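ok new one. same drill as before - structure tokens go in, u give me an amino acid for every spot. 700 of them this time. try not to just spam alanines like last time pls lmao
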């Protein structure tokens, strides 16, 4: 009994299930369930206001919240007793086959009241291979859970969840953990991985509905993508949708210039929707246009040079154009011109952090430790890469290969120390990921790296370091209130988070990932994840709407919409949709006047949600203001001047030149060394012998 709880003669735990002739199983009758609710109402240990009325979304919310605040605290003991009762009376079989038969029998006998109001689209549970509907309401502060499915086994799971949750107070229901469901003995040994994940997501759906009943939390804007078009929900989404169908005259003008002057274009996923809309349409007529993450941009530029392009326009921040210039030179295409989209610096708060005095001190600390390697994020300048490698052996990484890079360094060099930077959030997220791997199964760890075990992961954690003072102002947005809303209102949706987001959003995505509902990685990883989930939905014969919380820069939406719509058109499915949810800060700035304050980094203009940015005073933006310097007019200006007498005036638009020498090499040559180490790793799956030897012999 919980301390302070009043003794009660009524048994408030889940009633014992009467034995039946077949498998010792019998479904609770509705009368039996109602008796439990009545007993609970009379039970002092769960006493709530006796005048509390039936509560449903939008009905008597204040009274419901008030009654919830007075609920007694008996969640752990109540849920544990229910779990034990279900194990003892329902899932009594000693092997997987018996438990599966029990579920099928439960599914056959499961009765659902008010089916018409339960089997509606808004009650659908995502992440299930079959159709599942779940509805939660509260009567006298006790949950009444309705769950149903069109598949027998899943219907049996619905029956179990109904028994487990019905009668709980809101606080008790929200306290039920996924481990409680797994303790029923219905994990992947009995069910398929997809059914286990679906069972866990049924719980998340119940929690989401409970949170909505507890209040009216704000929702995020979204864009619903179907075979036939897009529908925005909210001003922010409207701004994103506006340019998905570009002006045909603009597309034609750009294509004519590119063909005439043999210009290729490499652009980052985070471009403005207007620019991406035009580029995506132009790519159908001119193949030398590539929208990708930062690493692939340089590869795309080389392919364009090989195909005969004499100029490459780079739409991104400055370190991207520098990398393109350096890789083209390394590939023997120094004669191919490279242009940025502005004469001024197109900065990056993260890249600038890597050129700070604090970062230099961090690297000097690493240089004093034997067997050290600096794993530097590719989103940094050539200067950073060159100067870092002069201090400590350095290899570049991306958000999609950073985990494997770090694990390989520890596997290949005994007693290695890995110093990651400059992104603080990614560094923290790496530590969190490895801490979770230290308690994972050997199979889960081996899937990431065959030479590691949970024990080796645990042993390397003290030797994994990360910089503490570097953040991207875009990914900085995804913390605090944004995550609280996502957790309450969208906990049963798919969650996609870039590796650079703050720990709160990363944790949500990691938790979702464990039940097949989340992804953490690069922009390309996120796009691939959404495509894979849509492919699964297209294989199912029933209507479906997939919700995805997009925990990264909203410029990705154009690429997502193009990919999703092409898949829906090819499958000719008008009954499947993808809803892209933009987790924009509720306190985003909407009005600007003269003398408005600037974001960190000195950006003087901060558009609000209606302008497509969704920036907050704390320094976070749903869209990158630096990237928005790559406008369509800037691109047309550069293309028009290429090949004319005015091209000489484009000198300030070229990537930053470096005249300094680093250990006898130009800055560009020295900055390429960490990139080449990464390319060796990507090609061979191991660190180069040169880098491994450097780690073992240079420092300490």
């Amino acid at each position: 009994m919980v301390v302070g709880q009043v003794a009660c003669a009524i048994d408030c735990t889940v009633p014992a299930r009467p034995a039946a002739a077949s498998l010792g199983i019998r479904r609770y009758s509705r009368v039996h369930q109602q008796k439990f609710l009545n007993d609970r109402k009379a039970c002092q240990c769960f006493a709530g206001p006796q005048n509390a009325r039936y509560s449903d979304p939008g009905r008597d919310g204040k009274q419901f919240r008030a009654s919830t605040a007075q609920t007694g605290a008996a969640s752990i003991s109540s849920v544990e007793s229910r779990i034990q009762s279900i194990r003892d009376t329902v899932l009594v079989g000693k092997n997987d086959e018996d438990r599966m038969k029990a579920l099928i029998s439960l599914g056959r006998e499961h009765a659902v009241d008010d089916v018409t109001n339960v089997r509606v689209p808004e009650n659908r549970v995502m992440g299930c291979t079959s159709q599942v509907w779940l509805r939660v309401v509260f009567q006298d502060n006790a949950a009444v859970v309705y769950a149903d499915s069109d598949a027998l086994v899943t219907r049996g799971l619905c029956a179990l969840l109904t028994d487990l949750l019905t009668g709980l107070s809101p606080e008790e229901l929200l306290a039920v953990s996924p481990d409680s469901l797994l303790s029923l003995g219905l994990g992947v040994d009995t069910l398929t991985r997809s059914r286990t994940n679906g069972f866990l997501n049924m719980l998340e759906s119940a929690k989401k509905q409970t949170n909505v009943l507890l209040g009216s939390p704000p929702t995020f804007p979204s864009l619903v993508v179907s075979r036939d078009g897009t529908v925005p929900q909210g001003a922010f989404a409207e701004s994103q949708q506006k340019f998905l169908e570009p002006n045909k005259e603009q597309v034609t003008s750009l294509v004519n210039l590119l063909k005439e002057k043999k210009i290729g274009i490499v652009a980052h996923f985070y471009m403005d929707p207007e620019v991406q809309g035009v580029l995506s349409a132009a790519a159908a007529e001119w193949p030398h246009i590539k929208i990708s993450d930062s690493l692939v941009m340089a590869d795309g530029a080389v392919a364009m040079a090989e195909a005969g392009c004499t100029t490459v326009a780079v739409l991104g921040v400055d370190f991207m154009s520098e990398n393109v210039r350096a890789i083209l030179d390394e590939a023997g295409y120094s004669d191919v011109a490279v242009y940025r989209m502005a004469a001024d610096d197109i900065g990056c708060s993260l890249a600038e952090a890597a050129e700070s005095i604090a970062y230099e001190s961090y690297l000097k600390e690493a240089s004093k430790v034997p067997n050290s390697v600096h794993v530097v994020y590719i989103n940094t300048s050539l200067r950073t890469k060159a100067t870092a490698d002069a201090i400590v052996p350095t290899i570049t990484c991306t958000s999609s290969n950073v985990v494997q890079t770090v694990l390989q360094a520890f596997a290949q060099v005994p007693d290695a120390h890995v110093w990651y930077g400059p992104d603080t959030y990614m560094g923290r997220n790496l530590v969190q990921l490895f801490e979770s791997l230290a308690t994972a199964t050997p199979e889960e760890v081996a899937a990431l790296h065959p030479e590691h075990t949970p024990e080796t992961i645990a042993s390397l954690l003290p030797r994994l370091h990360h910089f503490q003072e570097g953040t991207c102002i875009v990914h900085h947005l995804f913390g605090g209130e944004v995550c609280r809303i996502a957790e309450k209102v969208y906990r049963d949706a798919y969650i996609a988070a870039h590796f650079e987001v703050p720990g709160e959003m990363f944790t949500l995505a990691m938790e979702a990932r464990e039940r097949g509902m989340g992804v953490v990685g690069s922009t390309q990883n996120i796009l691939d994840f959404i495509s894979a989930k849509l492919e699964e939905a297209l294989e199912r014969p029933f209507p479906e709407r997939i919700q995805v919380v997009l925990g990264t820069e909203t410029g990705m939406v154009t690429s997502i919409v193009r990919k999703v719509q092409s898949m829906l058109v090819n499958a000719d499915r008008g009954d499947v949709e993808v809803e892209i949810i933009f987790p924009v800060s509720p306190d985003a700035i909407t009005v600007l006047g003269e003398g408005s304050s600037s974001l960190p980094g000195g950006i003087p203009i901060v558009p609000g949600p209606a302008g497509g940015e969704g920036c907050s005073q704390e320094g976070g933006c749903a869209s990158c203001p630096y990237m928005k310097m790559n406008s369509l007019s800037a691109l047309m200006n550069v293309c028009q001047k290429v090949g004319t007498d005015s091209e000489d005036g484009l000198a300030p638009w070229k990537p930053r030149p470096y005249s300094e020498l680093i250990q006898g090499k130009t800055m560009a040559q020295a900055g390429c060394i960490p990139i080449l180490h990464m390319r060796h790793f990507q090609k061979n799956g191991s660190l180069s012998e040169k880098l491994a030897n450097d780690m073992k012999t240079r420092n300490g």
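Confidence is low (pLDDT under 50) at residues 1-75, 473-478, 587-622. and btw The chain is about 45% helix and 15% strand.
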